[in-house]
């Protein structure tokens, strides 16, 4: 989970429309929030990912559901309140269900708070820093072994393997293979990992945490800095580091 920035509400969601849609829901129970403008606005706000688990929602086999942070059952007047809506995958939306954050315990809303203040990632499992983090992990089942922990472990292995290769390339470069091709191979390899650790990428919190927690990354970064080869990566590093959920 990464922190998100909520954009302005869609122009179509003006006050008269909100009132009309809310009344329609109260009277008929219709899913009035499933409008193109609401759905596209939510997808854009999260880089087309589930706000909770970061799975991509714009792939053919996946479907975005509109999550109501304060549930429809207890807060019917907020069913199209823009600040109450989040993009979610079906599993996270089902897990959250009718959970009442005011009565049963607050959970992280990544549009309102930085998840890293409440949780961190260790051994591919989310760990809580406080009661909000614990409620979030338990309510959304964010340590589901077959769905999320296994995916994080696979990402960790891929990142570690990539860093090992890049370190070998850099060791050869330092030892004397100072060709433009070798230098570009090293820079492109690190750049690819940083992009995969950035907000637009699926499971960016996991990739970023593994990357910045790996000693090979620190070694590579220091060697490239010594040779003046890190400057082009500074901006991308800063963007990616903001996703890391380090202990």
Task: Characterise this structure.
With 247 residues, the chain is mainly α. It has two domains: 15-114; 148-243. The protein has helices at residues 15-28, 36-45, 90-96, 131-140, 145-175, 180-196, 204-213, 215-226, 234-241; strands spanning 65-68, 85-88, 119-122, 125-128. Helix 5 (145-175) packs antiparallel against helix 6 (180-196), helix 5 crosses helix 7 (204-213) and helix 6 (180-196) packs parallel to helix 9. The two termini are 14 Å apart. The mean pLDDT is 94.
Which key features would you list for this structure?
247 residues; 2 domains; two-stranded antiparallel sheet; 9 helices
Q: Supply the number of helical segments.
A: 9
Shape descriptor reads: elongated
Give the biggest beta sheet.
2 strands, antiparallel
Largest sheet strand order? 1-2
The strand count comes to 4
Strand-pairing-aware structural class: mainly alpha
Gist of the model:
The chain is mainly α and 247 residues long. The chain has helices at residues 15-28, 36-45, 90-96, 131-140, 145-175, 180-196, 204-213, 215-226, 234-241; strands at residues 65-68, 85-88, 119-122, 125-128. It contains nine helices and four strands.
Structural topology:
Blueprint: H1 15-28, H2 36-45, E1 65-68, E2 85-88, H3 90-96, E3 119-122, E4 125-128, H4 131-140, H5 145-175, H6 180-196, H7 204-213, H8 215-226, H9 234-241
Antiparallel strand pairs: 1-2, 3-4
Helix pairs in contact: 5-6, 5-7, 5-8, 6-9
């Amino acid at each position: 989970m990464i922190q998100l920035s909520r954009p302005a509400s869609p122009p179509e969601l003006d006050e008269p429309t909100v009132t009309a849609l809310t009344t329609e829901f109260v009277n008929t129970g219709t899913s009035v929030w499933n409008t193109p403008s609401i759905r596209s606005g939510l997808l854009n706000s999260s880089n087309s990912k589930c706000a909770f688990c970061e799975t991509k929602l714009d792939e053919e086999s996946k479907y975005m559901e509109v999550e109501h942070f304060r549930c429809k059952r207890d807060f019917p007047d907020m069913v199209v309140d823009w600040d109450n809506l989040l993009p979610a995958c079906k599993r996270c939306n089902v897990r959250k269900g009718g959970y009442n954050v005011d009565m049963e315990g607050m959970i992280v809303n990544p549009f309102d708070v930085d998840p890293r203040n409440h949780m961190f990632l260790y051994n591919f499992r989310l760990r809580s820093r406080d009661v909000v983090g614990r409620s979030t992990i338990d309510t959304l089942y964010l340590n589901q072994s077959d769905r999320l922990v296994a995916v994080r472990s696979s990402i960790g292995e891929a990142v570690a393997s990539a860093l090992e290769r890049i370190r070998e390339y850099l060791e050869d470069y330092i030892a004397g293979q100072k060709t433009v091709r070798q230098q570009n191979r090293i820079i492109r390899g690190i750049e690819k990992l940083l992009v995969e650790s950035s907000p637009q990428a699926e499971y960016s919190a996991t990739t970023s945490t593994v990357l910045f927690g790996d000693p090979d990354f620190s070694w590579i970064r220091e060697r490239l800095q010594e040779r003046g080869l890190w400057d082009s990566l500074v901006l991308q590093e800063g963007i990616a580091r903001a996703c890391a959920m380090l202990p």
